[in-house]
Amino acid sequence: xxxEGVSYSYGKRSRPALTDVTWTFHAGRTVLLxxxxxxxxxxxxxxxxxxxxxxxxxxxxxxxxxxxxxxWPPRPPRHRTLARRAAVTGWMPQEVRPAPGLTAREQVAxxxxxxxxxxxxxxxxxxxxxxxxGLSADAGRPASALSDEQLRRVGLAEALVHGPRLxxxxxxxxxxxxxxxxxxxxxxxxxxxxxxxxxxxxxxxxLDELYDQVVVVAxxxxxxxxxxxxxxxxxxxxxxxxxxxxxxxxxxxxxxP
Length: 257
Ligand SMILES: Nc1ncnc2c1ncn2[C@@H]1O[C@H](COP(=O)(O)OP(=O)(O)OP(=O)(O)O)[C@@H](O)[C@H]1O
Description:
6-stranded mixed β-sheet, 20% strand, globular, ATP-binding, nucleotide-binding
């Protein structure tokens, strides 16, 4: 997936959430870092096809460019592009909500159906996907009765059920305690098929356990894209291996608080 000169604003009067972002996602696991309001969620939502750029293009490998948002009426190729992106990507937003009245299995199967799977296939795949995220025992429970951490795993299963090539996860471990975070990280590490991932987070203590690439976003721009090992060399406090200081140094360089 590549971003080519992508800009996005939520409204005419608001400051752009992303400005002229050019960046290419490479296979593997990439973590997206940056302060609050940096533009991480916006970048992920553009990657998922949930938002359409004001300017520039977000492309899957070899696909058609997405038309700029303000071109009207939208042309059929754009719809085909977005439909394909929905099939190829799996998207987990920051907040996973329980679907009222549905069990965990029904919620995951419904997500599969929305992504174009046959009903029977989605129903069966919901079982294997819930197994993959360690929730087999809870598949028949109402989603609303699950803990916050279990609900995140339902959200992950929803993102995975249709077998995407690229997982896009927006702060999947925010608000979890350290033990829950470690459990969620193990689930991500051991997913069958080892899908490519782009994951935003504020947790920087254990980056190298899961990720190989890092992107740092600040002020709506990509300030750094490279390997985790290279990022760690950016620390200013003379303590190599400290992702926290390395990432803060980059953000400070960008003039952000
Ligand atoms: N729905 C929205 N309407 C208006 N402005 C928005 C909306 N969503 C985000 N923004 C603004 O766009 C900018 C980028 O926000 P975004 O959520 O992408 O940042 P983020 O890096 O994901 O932040 P966080 O780590 O707090 O989730 C911010 O200035 C934010 O206030």
